[in-house]
Write a structure and sequence with these properties.
The structure is a single chain. The chain is of the alpha/beta class. The protein has one domain (3-234): P-loop containing nucleotide triphosphate hydrolases (Rossmann fold, 3-Layer(aba) Sandwich). 37% of the residues lie in helices and 26% in strands. It has helices at residues 41-48, 71-77, 94-100, 109-122, 124-128, 139-151, 169-184, 196-202, 220-224, 227-234; strands at 3-12, 15-25, 30-34, 54-61, 64-65, 79-82, 157-161, 188-192, 205-210, 213-219. A hairpin with a 2-residue loop joins strand 1 (3-12) and strand 2 (15-25). Helix 3 (94-100) packs parallel to helix 6. It is globular and about 45 Å long.
């Protein structure tokens, strides 16, 4: 497995947020992390990227232990985290926001510009917006920019936190298709997503968190057909299993 978490516990002060989380992400997979608000999804991503320090358990990425690393070291190992809320720099241009994603690599200017062109190939609209300031972007454009900036670190694993949040349905479809394309081209994705139907149609497997614990896990198509999943998270009849999974 590319990423393994075993019995991971994380806290906010003295409040325990993760109660022994265990999960696996295989190379090339899209794995979804689902659950209600406050279930621990974002905390799990922050713990993987070492923005929050685990107090117990084990996290390994490509055989390397992550617990105890600095966040910039985690990026250097090949893990990029695109946080909820996008967090772009509003006063910088789109192009400069993208270039900042390469900072942990200490790459040459020529290499960075090549990678900017690769990002524009994935997100053609960003090329047209390259000279615009971040504050002028729509929600969908800002989300594309946040993902493009994450890809500039050349990650083996991309952690995506709520990429569809606040976006119009047509924009959500574009963003999700881009995530599928990123995975097809070789980047593994761990996806936190509020839209469980959408996430399960995109992912190969999923974990469902409840109050900092894994409540359900399995193949995405099986969870889509699960009565327990439907009652608790999908709010309707089981969706048809996707024809293909990423």
């Amino acid at each position: 497995m590319l990423l393994e978490l075993r019995d991971v516990e994380s806290y906010y002060g003295e409040i325990r947020a993760l109660h022994g989380i265990s999960l696996d992400v295989g190379e090339g997979e899209i794995v979804a992390l689902l659950g209600a608000n406050g279930a621990g999804k974002s905390t799990t991503l922050k713990t993987i990227s070492q923005l929050i320090r685990a107090r117990a358990g084990r996290i390994t990425f490509a055989g390397r232990k992550l617990i105890g690393c600095d966040p910039e070291d985690v990026v250097a190992l090949g893990v990029a985290h695109v946080p909820e809320g996008r967090r772009i720099f509003p006063g910088l241009t789109v192009g400069d926001n993208i270039r900042l994603g390469a900072a942990p690599r200490r790459a040459t200017r020529a290499s960075i510009e090549q990678d900017v062109e690769a990002a524009f190939a994935i997100f053609p609209k960003l090329r047209m917006l390259a000279a615009k300031r971040g504050w002028t972007l729509s929600g969908g454009e800002a989300q594309m920019l946040a993902i493009a900036r994450g890809l500039m670190a050349k990650p083996k694993l991309l952690l995506l936190d709520e990429p569809s949040l606040g976006l119009a349905p047509l924009i959500v479809a574009d963003v999700m298709e881009t995530i599928a394309r990123i995975a097809r081209e070789g980047t593994t994705v761990l996806l936190v997503e509020q839209n469980a139907h959408l996430a399960l149609q995109l992912a190969a497997r999923a974990y469902v968190l409840e109050t900092g614990r894994v409540a359900l896990h399995g193949a995405a198509r099986d969870l889509l057909a699960s009565e327990a999943m439907r009652r608790a998270y999908l709010g309707g009849p089981p969706a048809p299993a996707p024809a293909t999974s990423a």
